[in-house]
User: What shape does this take?
Amino acid sequence: MFVAFTLPPVNRKSNSNNAIITQLASTVDPRLTTKKEFEDICGVTFQGNELDRRLERTSYLYPKHVEVIEDIAHVADAMVSNILLECGDKAWQPQDYLPDLTGDNWLEEVQDLREQAAGIPDDVLVVLVGDMVTEEALPTYQTLLNTFEGCDDPTGTTDSAWARWSRGWTSEENRHGDLLNKYLYLGGKCDMRSIEVTIQHLITSGFNPGAEKDPYKGFVYTSFQERATKISHGNVGKLAKQYGDKNLQRICAKIAGDEARHEKAYQKFVTEILLRDPDGIIETFADVMRGQIVMPAELMNDGVKTNLYEDFSEIAQNLEVYTAIDYAEILQHLVTLWDLEHLTGLGDEAEKDREYLCKLPGRYKKLAERSMNRKKKATEDAPKTAKSFSWIHGRSVY
Assistant: This one.
């Protein structure tokens, strides 16, 4: 049975088919469905106001999820006030961590930066560039945020809590790519044009984490990914300290600190959803994990290397900047944070998903350990394969 909706002339109250016209200028044709059938299908009556309300709600793919998101808007508002820093002089800026080229001793500052950066080996440099490229694709991530139903910024200056969160989060994240880009430029060890080509390709290619406009999926994803990014930047900072680059160490620590605050906010959103719709968010969490977490830079391309992301990812794993073990431990962190082990009162399907999620970190960790051990043994038994990167003028790393 189908319900037919047509657009009659403005202000028309009836038509030749005796269709009932609502205030939204849509019609339900009684030749195609009876009043009782329509009420059974749509859950509302033929009355104009009721049908208008139904049409408004069903403009969303996830109306129940949107209702919950609207109910926790005050939490997003608190995150803007308590998690995001203020703009302007009270917020840190990239220039705070870079030589001042307008100062009298600018040359000495640049020379000092280059002397410290000279100690960074090429494999660490490749991972740093990959992290920077990921950060520079920020326009893609804000676009993604604005696809989450109930969390969008339809005008670009919307004064809702969710729109202000989206813009504020973006403004803070924007500093990360700026700072790393300028550090690499001043360091003088990279082919900046090749890196710029990679950034443009990545933004052009886009990014699809499989959220499908669902705010629940979006916040599960960001809860995971912000923690992953924090771990990656933090570990690069540790390597920078090991190789004597205090400037890079400070830069990575500052960026990781931002990611930690953002992680806290997104995880709080999921905590609040869990209080209102536990079945819905548990089923969504399980669905996301069955598809696994898509890394935001998987489509990176420098126009030369077709498997650029795979090579970058392998170097990162070899350096233990971000590994499959980290993936499993992030999942365990979320299961523990949201106390899924002790969550009760779920429906049958959600309970099955809860059990699946609670067991998943252990399974992933075992698989990761086995995979890493096999890879280590294979590496010991075979000569290492060199991987060249255009980002560092074609130099090879292992």
